[in-house]
Amino acid sequence: MNDAHLPGILNCINEGIVLTKRNLEITFWNPFMEGLHGEKSSKILGQKLDDVLPSLKQPFFSRAMEQLVVSGNPLFFSAAMHRDLINEQHQVNLKMNRVQVGDEVILMLEFIDVTSQFKRINQLRCYVRQLSHLNTELKQKEKVVEKLAYYDRLTGVANRALFEKFADKYLSLAKRRNTMLGLMFVDVNEFKMINDTYGHDTGDKVMTRVASLLTESTRKHDIVCRYGGDEFLVLLPDIRTMKDYYQIATRIEANKRRKIIQDGYSISVSLSIGISFYPDDGLTISELIIRADEYMYADKQNSR
Question: Is 260 helix (H, G, I), strand (E, B) or coil?
Fold first, then answer.
């Protein structure tokens, strides 16, 4: 090269600088490149570029360098797209330029070390994965907490807290839409006798079966709630006609008296049911519960 100071300048640059002839014979290999590659310039000079850096033997790079020699348009290769250009220990961005010195064509390759950036990116990705994992765990725990807060532990149906939450919502909808809201009060008759006769474990399983029967008999958006030890409330929103109610009531009535096989016992289970409607039987949820309880008690008396 004509400029005697140029090699000294290139030796001080914190980038790997490689100069080659047109035929890719290496004529310059600066100290920073020695650190990246691991070989001294004394062993590298005179060798072909793609012999020293086998990754550049790929047809893609061969064509790119041929194009560079002809057109002189600079090229850039990102470490994100082209990994391990020098080795696995260092990730580099690569710039290629053509330099014309008189009649001589020189190719200059700049290897910009971005290993530390890659490490930080990988750390960030690791942190993101950890945060994602923690977020998933938190969501799962939130579901557990919500289930404990809003669902009956024994039967899995809604508890009073969830019932009250939906009851107010459905009552407001019924008022706005001018529709009926049904509230069913269900009592498991003689449940104490079932516990005393078959044991509390079996009694708990029977209670769970009753909750399942009520859930299966109602619509998807109806709310089945365990209201007390042997009592359930069933919230029936959006009752537009009595036909809507009768379809549900018929399914529940079919299970009003039945045998449940549990723990080897055939257990007779009967239900007493009362149903109240907004607005005919009350304008608040409390009024509807009181009226449905009265109807349930009357049903219990009639069935004796």
Answer: strand
Structural domain for 85, as ranges: 6-113
Same domain, 245 and 256: yes
124: number of Cβ within 10 Å: 10
Q: Smallest Cα–Cα separation from 217: which of 165, 256, 269? A: 256
> What is the per-residue pLDDT across 170-214, written as a single tens digit (0 to 9) for each?
999 999 999 999 999 999 999 999 999 999 999 999 999 999 999
Tokens of 190: 């003689």
Same domain, 174 and 242: yes
How far is residue 145's CA from residue 179's CA, in Å, rounded to a whole number?
Answer: 34
- Tell me if residue 224 falls in helix, strand or coil: strand
Encoded tokens for 121: 């990116």
Distances (CA, A) of 278 to 27, 66, 236, 239: 93, 84, 10, 10
pLDDT digits (tens, 9 = 90+) for 98-148: 988 878 889 999 999 888 888 888 888 888 888 888 888 888 877 766 667
Show which residues are catalytic. Answer: 230
Q: Which two tokens stand for residue 47?
A: 């060798």
